[in-house]
Every structure is written in C-alpha cells, then in structure tokens.
C-alpha cells in the first residue's frame, strides 16, 4: 500500500473535508476519493461517514489513525536516515505536547541545537496519545511530557519542575471572584487536573478550555479573564501591569519528564540531549520577550 494513501486518509481525518484535503495535498478531490476508496477496500471497512453534512470517522477509521500515523512517520524517517547517511550526521526527533512547548521546551531548543552541533533535529508538537504510540514504535526518539509513561519499555526521567500561577487581568481579587467570569482552563496534565479539582471543585464554568498556555494568555489579554500560566510566561506581563496574581496561595508545581525507549538505537545520544537540557538554564524565550514588548 502506497504511503500516499495513508497520508491522504490522515489529512481527510484532520480536515473532515475531501476538498480541503485535496488542496493541502495538491491533488484533485477525485484523487482523494480514489485513495480513500482504495484504503477502505484494503481494510474491508468504511472509514468515513456523512452525518448531517459533516464527514466523521467510523469506528474503523478511528482505529486506523494510530497505524496510519506510524506508517507515515516511519517512511519519513527512512527517507531522512538515508539522506543523512553520506554526511554521517544523526537526526534526533523530539516531540512535546503543546503545553510543554509553551511552559518549557521553547526556551531550551536553541540551547540543545548549539550544545550538540553534531546532531540534526526534528521537533514536533503532538498530543499525548500520539507521543505515547510514537515512542513505543520508535518513530520518535524523545518525548517531553507533564506525565510519565507507565510502561516497562520506556524510561520516564524527571528533568524539571514548572511553577504554575493563577493570574488575572483584574488586580486585588480572590480566586472565586476571578474564576466567576472568563476563566480559562488550561490542560496541564493529569496531576494538575486532580489538584485543580481538589482545590476548586466543579462549581466554575470555564469560558474556554485549551491545551496551550499561549492561547490562554492571548485570550485573557484580549478579552480579560483568569488562567493558570507558567510563571516564566506570565512574569513579563505581571511586570508590565497587564496581569496580576490572584490573592492567596494559588501556585501549583508540575514536573517535566523526558520519555524514551530503553532499547532505542540512539539511546546514548538521547541521554546526552537529556543531560544538556537538565543542566541548562536558558534565558527567557525570545517569543515571550517580543510578546511582552508589544503594545
């Protein structure tokens, strides 16, 4: 089966639209339909269904997602490894959830690339399920997450802590008042969800739920509101008077884990990268600096 068929399936699953998938892949809509039909014949099951003019994945389509993702990623890795063979360079793939990028790794990317010039890097922002499956099938070398992976096949090494602080656009208010209007719930992982529920219960109704601190920050700066943000991300806006810490003790700490396969062929290289990250103290991200300097 041509890997292009799996790419097409994933694009339709992502866009939920045959026409948009065709535009993204630079092929005709008829070609998209033909590839999906070919794949459905191969697995002997329908992959999409139309419900109220919306294209949705069938149960078979849902189950195919991780396998198609693995297939596409594996073939991309093959092409990359072969292209790097003559140069004797090694490429390391690093993935992280969106919130880990915002809270932590964007500050370290330059440190890692400068500290290990003999490597080339591929970085990806993926959901936790994709990270887990990609680590297990060895199509991703290193994952950075807020929650360790509970598997005997992987190493989950705690490498850092991130302090989260509840901030709001109104000064001198308590948590219950701050959460009553325009509260943005950011998904900072399983442990955060448990601690958040224990501390605040279910009495609040979030105006917005998001997986990235960057989106939460942009929203409350634009519309007003409250959110838990990493101290490093919130600090420049607290300093400028755009954000305020909520009154009382409303800080939570999250651990960052480096996760990788025990038997990955690049395990020594991965451990070198983890050591560089663990021993570095990068300056505040340029992205944050630019954002905080915008009027």
Automatic annotation (TrEMBL):
InterPro entries: LysR_HTH_N, LysR_subst-bd, WH-like_DNA-bd_sf, WH_DNA-bd_sf. Keywords: DNA-binding, Transcription, Transcription regulation. Residues 1-58 form the HTH lysR-type domain. Gene3D superfamilies: 3.40.190.290, Winged helix-like DNA-binding domain superfamily/Winged helix DNA-binding domain. It comes from the Bacteria. It holds the Pfam family HTH_1. The keyword Transcription applies. The keyword Transcription applies. GO terms for molecular function: DNA-binding transcription factor activity; transcription cis-regulatory region binding. Belongs to the LysR transcriptional regulatory family. This is HTH lysR-type domain-containing protein. It comes from Psychrosphaera saromensis.
């Amino acid at each position: 089966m041509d890997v292009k068929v799996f790419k097409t399936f994933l694009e339709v699953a992502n866009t939920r639209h045959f026409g948009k998938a065709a535009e993204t892949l630079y092929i005709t809509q008829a070609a998209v339909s033909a590839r999906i039909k070919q794949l459905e014949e191969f697995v002997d099951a329908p992959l999409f269904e139309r419900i109220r003019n919306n294209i949705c994945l069938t149960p078979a389509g849902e189950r195919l997602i991780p396998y198609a993702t693995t297939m596409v990623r594996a073939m991309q890795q093959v092409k990359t490894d072969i292209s790097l063979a003559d140069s004797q360079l090694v490429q390391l793939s690093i993935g992280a959830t969106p919130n880990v990028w915002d809270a932590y790794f964007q500050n370290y990317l330059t440190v890692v690339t400068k500290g290990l010039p003999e490597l080339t890097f591929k970085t990806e922002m993926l959901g936790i399920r994709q990270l887990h499956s990609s680590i297990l099938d060895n199509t991703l070398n290193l994952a950075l997450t807020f929650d360790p992976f509970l598997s005997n096949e992987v190493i989950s090494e705690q490498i850092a802590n991130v302090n989260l602080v509840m901030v709001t656009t109104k000064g001198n208010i308590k948590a219950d008042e701050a959460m009553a209007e325009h509260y943005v719930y950011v998904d900072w992982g399983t442990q955060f969800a448990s601690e958040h529920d224990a501390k605040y219960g279910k009495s609040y109704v979030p105006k917005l739920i998001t997986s990235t601190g960057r989106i939460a920050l942009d929203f409350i700066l634009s519309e007003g509101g409250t959110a838990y943000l990493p101290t490093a991300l919130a600090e420049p806006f607290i300093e400028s008077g755009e954000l305020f810490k909520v009154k009382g003790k409303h800080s939570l700490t999250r651990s960052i884990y480096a996760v990788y396969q025990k038997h990955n062929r690049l395990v020594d290289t991965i451990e070198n990268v983890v050591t560089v990250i663990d021993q570095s103290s990068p300056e505040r991200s340029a992205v944050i600096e630019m954002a905080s300097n915008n009027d």
